[in-house]
Amino acid sequence: MTIKRQWMLVLVISVALSVIVNSLVLSVRINRYFIDYSTENYEAHVTQVVEFSTEALSANEYTSQQLEMQLTSHLSDPITRIRLYRTDGVLLADISAVDRPMMGMMRNEMAERMLSTTAEEVDSIDIQKDGNLIGKLMITRYSSIGNSIGTQRFSLSLITNSLLSFGIVFALTFVLGYFISKRMSKDLMLTAQQAVDIDLGRESRTPQSNVLEIKTIQQSLVALQSRLMLKQTSRKKLIDELVHQTRTPLTILRTHLEGFQDGVIQFTPDEVKTCEAQIENLSSIITNMSGLIDAEKEIDHTHIIAVDISGLIRQIVAGLKAQFDKKSLALHVQSHQKIMVQTDPYQLSQAIYNLLTNAYKFTESGGTVTVSYQMAGAELMITVQDTGVGIALEDQPRVFDAYYRGSNSLNIVGDGIGLYIVKENLLKIGGSIELESTQGTGSIFTIKIPGSQY
Questions:
Q1: Quick one: 370 and 439 in the same domain?
Q2: What is the pLDDT at residue 287?
Q3: Could you write out the DSSP letters of every residue in 127-141?
């Protein structure tokens, strides 16, 4: 059974029980009150009839017709007949409910039918004055006040009204329940569709329900979708980062092989060492890629060792020199002193590679790219300066964001992840990077990493 039908069934049953119980309780209490009222009314009429009969018998001035007219006003439910006798047994007045219209609500035939099916009792009352018996009053009434015509009509009216109320409430409940259940089932169906969309990786824009429980489920699904998207985005960033990192050593190897084929480069021991370094970089990247098999595993391999900064930079520049020469770009290293620091050579060299390849892309032929380094207290500062197109002031706060491409890079091939990798790599080794740039003049990137010279 669907939730919609269950809701309707529970609602209708609850309303039906509520109306029935309420009607029964009210009927019993009101009927009891009406019977008490009828009893008091009967006793009041009897008192009035006795008083009038005493006065009429004492005065002896009323004719039978006058007596009957006066007593007729007391033929009130449950009294059905009044007879007045003198002490000698002479009947002075005899009136009955059958002999008069029933207040325009019942005809005599109906009254007679009801009277014939209802048990009656006769109350005999002695009429006395000054201690002397002057007459007898015979009052016929229903054997029980509850069996009177008025009481029966009142009970019937209560039942009729209860049934009418039940019908009206049932109809309103059915209509209201139908729309509420339709709304709830619609919200549940939309929530189910939202879960399916999340499972299939589709974007879901489900309007929030006004039902608290359904709204909570929807919010949980939205939170789950956000976590899945963040995880997917993080994995994509990681894959893109690793793919981007493979481009630099592959480009260097390809450039050196092309130079060797063209006779520009000779395979000297230094050239072989440069190519071997790029192969080691590729091996390290491929090893990191294997970590993607575990979806929850973060690749963060840092290996801190003593690094010769001068040798590291010369090796990087040597690897890129052929590529720069091919574009007619001057690549210089201004510092030559030997500095040894404790750091991760792979993370640092990848950051320097990315800065130099970035300068290569955004510097026109004939330009210059300069690398320098120095110790500043307990920090090693490495500066990469170019004479390229520069970075607009409004783009500078976001150039280190993943996939962000500034206004100066619209016509240049790239995916906007190079500088993001630089920042992430430096964070892993406790470093930072600063940018100074003027559009049309060039850019200066300064790497700062902790390390004492020794």
A1: yes
A2: 66
A3: EEETTEEEEEEEEEE
Burial bucket for residue 314 (CB in 10 Å: 0-12, 13-18, 19+): middle
pTM score, two decimals?
0.46
Residues 31 and 76 in one domain: yes
The domain that contains 445 carries what CATH number?
Answer: 3.30.565.10
* Residue 194 domain flag: no
Rg (C-alpha) for the chain, rounded Å, is: 54
Regarding whether 369 and 440 lie in a shared domain, the answer is yes
**In degrees rounded to 5, what are phi and psi of residue 21?**
-65, -45
The whole domain housing 240 covers 231-450
DSSP H or E run through 386: strand 379-386
Distance (Å, rounded) from C-alpha 21 to C-alpha 15?
A: 10
Instruction: Work out how many domains the chain is built from and give that number.
Output: 3
CA separation for the pair 395, 346 (Å, rounded):
28
Taking phi over 0 as left and psi of -120 to 50 as alpha, with beta for the rest, 400 belongs to alpha
313 & 338 share domain: yes
Would you say residue 188 lies in a domain?
A: no
Q: Is the model more confident about 411 or about 103?
A: 411
Domain shared by 364 and 420, yes or no: yes
Inform me whether the pLDDT recorded for 260 exceeds 80. Answer: no
Cα 299 from chain centre: 36
Asked if residue 177 belongs to a domain, the reply is no
Neighbours of 104 (CB within 10 A): 6
- Asked if residue 196 belongs to a domain, the reply is no
**220 and 92 belong to one structural domain:** no
Give pairs for 311-318: CB < 8 Å, separation 24+: 311/338, 312/345, 312/348, 312/349, 312/352, 313/352, 313/371, 313/373, 313/382, 315/273, 315/274, 315/277, 315/349, 316/349, 316/352, 316/353, 316/356, 317/356, 317/371, 318/270, 318/271, 318/274
For residue range 165-210, list pLDDT tens digits in order.
Answer: 777 877 777 777 777 777 667 777 777 877 887 777 676 677 777 7
Q: Which of 98-102, 116-120, 347-351, 417-421 is most confident?
A: 347-351
* Helix ranges (DSSP H) in 92-211: 108-116, 149-200
pLDDT (tens digit, 9 = 90+) per residue, 97-138? 765 554 444 434 444 444 444 577 888 999 888 888 889 999
In whole angstroms, what is the distance from residue 428 CA to residue 251 CA? 25
Residues 316 and 403 in one domain: yes
C-alpha to C-alpha distance for 155 and 157, rounded to whole angstroms: 5
Work out the pLDDT band at 365, boundaries 50, 70, 90: very high
Residues 247 and 341 in one domain: yes
CA–CA separation, 5 vs 13, rounded Å? 12
